[in-house]
Amino acid sequence: MTETKNNSLVLFENVSKNYGKNRALAELTFSIESGSVTALAGPNGAGKSTSLKLICGLLRYRGSALFHGRQIRSITDLEIVRAAYFLPEDKELRPQSRVKEVLVEARELGGKRVDRKRLESLCEELSVNASLERRVRELTPGMRTALYLAVTLSTDAELYALDEPLSGLDPILRTRVIGHMKELAIRDGKTVIYSTHILEEAEEAADRIVFMDRGRALFSGGVDEAKERYREIIADGKEAETLRPGANGILHVRRETNGVVRALAETSGISLGHPGKSCPVSLRDLFLHLVEASREGGSR
Fold first, then answer.
1. From the CB of residue 223, how many other CB atoms can be counted at a distance below 10 Å?
2. Which residues of the chain have pLDDT under 50?
3. Are 64 and 15 in contact (CB under 8 A)?
4. What angle do CA 122, 128, 134 make, to 5 degrees?
5. Domain range summary for the chain, segments of one domain joined by +
6. Which fold has domain 10-214?
7. Which pairing describes strands 159-162 and 84-87: parallel, antiparallel, or unpaired?
8. Which residue of 36, 85, 145, 289 has the fewest CB atoms within a 10 Å radius of its CB?
9. Strand partners, 196
């Protein structure tokens, strides 16, 4: 279910990470292509934040994690420090500072890495300028996110690792941020990897996706690839009774309370004359199938 590519910008192979007795990553394998927007999608505790921190050299780990073909060591690895920009999930840094002070500090500390015109434009577009005199702790969660996104997206980096960057944003700001994430990849050739647990959002923002659960990757590849590779077969009554894993390319079966059965199947394995109706599968339904199959000890 997972893919690996030797020419990837980031390549995880059998990466594991424990916090004491708690396992955050369990032999995690996935790849990130240069110039892409990749979503790490999964429930809370799937290992998304840990993966982002590890990519930026913030954590020790076991296994192989490569950046440009070199093992990721730690924050002391200057190549990682210069190339990656990490936006944490906790966006309450400097809570006592005023918004304008955060922006001044970003310009001063970022130096030439900060595109000042772009920062000014983003502050206007994301409505940050309306709160310049307010302290960070006084901002709504959405406006704190907008503030730190303005700084992040105006700072030059090869790779942007964003932890829940769309959390708390209203639909207008969310759409604008997604547009800027795509622009970084398409126009500037940058790589964006971000975490989310909202699959509909990932379908809009990302061209590649990694489904994660319990520290493992259930699928890694293109969003279009996922939709083309899998379909859902929907049936009820006697037809539903014939839908079982292993038949007609079926990987997993979900039975609903109204008697309807939804089966996930690989497109290539579906035969002519199969029972039920074959339909495209959404990322949300695909993820639910893969998670349930994994937890039930299914074929995938």
1. 19
2. 1-4, 298-300
3. yes
4. 155
5. 10-214, 226-295
6. Rossmann fold (3.40.50)
7. parallel
8. 36
9. 41
Q: What are the tens digits of pLDDT across the range 159-182?
A: 999 999 998 999 999 999 999 999
Q: Check: CB of residue 127 under 8 Å from CB of residue 146.
A: yes
* Token pair recorded at residue 73: 């060591």
Among the listed residues 26, 148, 39, 161, the one whose alpha carbon sits nearest the alpha carbon of residue 90: 148
CA angle 9, 210, 232 (to 5 degrees): 140
According to the model, what pLDDT value does residue 1 have?
Answer: 45
Can you read off the two tokens belonging to residue 233? 């077969």
Whole-number mean pLDDT of the chain? 88
Residue 163 makes CB contacts below 8 A (sequence gap 6+) with 48, 49, 52, 86, 87, 88, 89, 194, 195
3-state secondary structure string, the chain?
CCCCCCCCCEEEEEEEEEECCEEEEEEEEEEECCCCEEEEECCCCCCHHHHHHHHCCCCCCEEEEEECCEECCCCCCHHHHHHEEEECCCCCCCCCCEHHHHHHHHHHHHHHHECHHHHHHHHHHCCCHHHCCCEHHHCCHHHHHHHHHHHHHCECCCEEEECCCCCCCCHHHHHHHHHHHHHHHHCCCCEEEEEECCHHHHHHHCCEEEEEECCEEEEEEEHHHHHHHEEEEEECHHHHHCCCCCCCCEEEEEECCCCCEEEEEEHHHCCCCCCCEEEECCHHHHHHHHHHHHHCCCCC
